Structure of ABC transport system ATP-binding protein:
Amino acid sequence: MLRPVVDISNVQKIYGKKTENQHYALNGVSLTIDQGEFVGIMGPSGAGKTTLLNVISTLDQPTSGTIKISGTDLTQMNQTQLADFRSEKLGFIFQEFNLLENLTIYENIALPLSLQGVSSKKIKPSVENVARKLGIMETLNKYPTAVSGGQKQRAAAARAIVHDPALILADEPTGSLDTKNAKSLLGAMEDLNEQHDVTIMMVTHDPFSASYCKRILFIQDGAIYKVIHRTGSKQEFYQEILDVLSEVGTSKAME
Ligand SMILES: Nc1ncnc2c1ncn2[C@@H]1O[C@H](COP(=O)(O)OP(=O)(O)OP(=O)(O)O)[C@@H](O)[C@H]1O
Ligand SMILES: [Mg+2]
């Protein structure tokens, strides 16, 4: 049996001191994600989606519970070990592209490898490989201000995968894209997942983006309350997602 890529057990994240009003951003979340899965996280604003992604990404620490990534227990690591782990094993795609304006697209994509001290000779084929995969070869020598929003987003995706991470974490990756560019990014992520067995965890509000996932976890008040799996087409799954979201809307209205 392969180890799951993500294995978290009974994770709580509590904000506020004991003497104050405490807020349970995560209230006992357990989940596992296997290699090659494409998992979506949905739920209303404030549900705990970003918090969940942040504790898995080591950017934030849980109040209690265990988090293992590819078998490594993050809660046992110190800050230096966490930083190394993050740069080697994880790839990030955020809503804001977070490209550095004073570096070219090539240099931006190369960043995770440069930071790990990989030689520039080895970096070149890796960068070109992902740039080709994502269709942005012609942008490599340009600066971020001179390329389109969709190209920036794909450059950010290229940077997220250039070092062959165990897991890609995406928080609203299509949030600031128009339909055409959103489709192109989602298509690229789907291809990475299906053709290259990359494991992806994606937070999204958008049912269309979510329909690209194979499994969706719905979160409310810091807990998973529903899980659905894609068994048929994206169109069918899209409808199923809308149905779940409308159920939630109804139950909320009845509270
Ligand atoms: N640093 C913090 N201090 C105190 N409370 C916080 C902090 N960060 C988040 N929270 C609270 O934790 C809860 C979960 O926040 P989180 O950002 O995970 O929500 P989300 O599901 O990502 O929402 P959105 O869809 O709006 O991005 C919210 O009620 C939020 O106000
Ligand atoms: Mg969020």
Observations:
- The longest strand covers residues 23-33.
- The chain has one domain: 6-254.
- The helical segments are 49-56, 79-89, 105-115, 120-133, 149-161, 179-196, 207-210, 234-254.
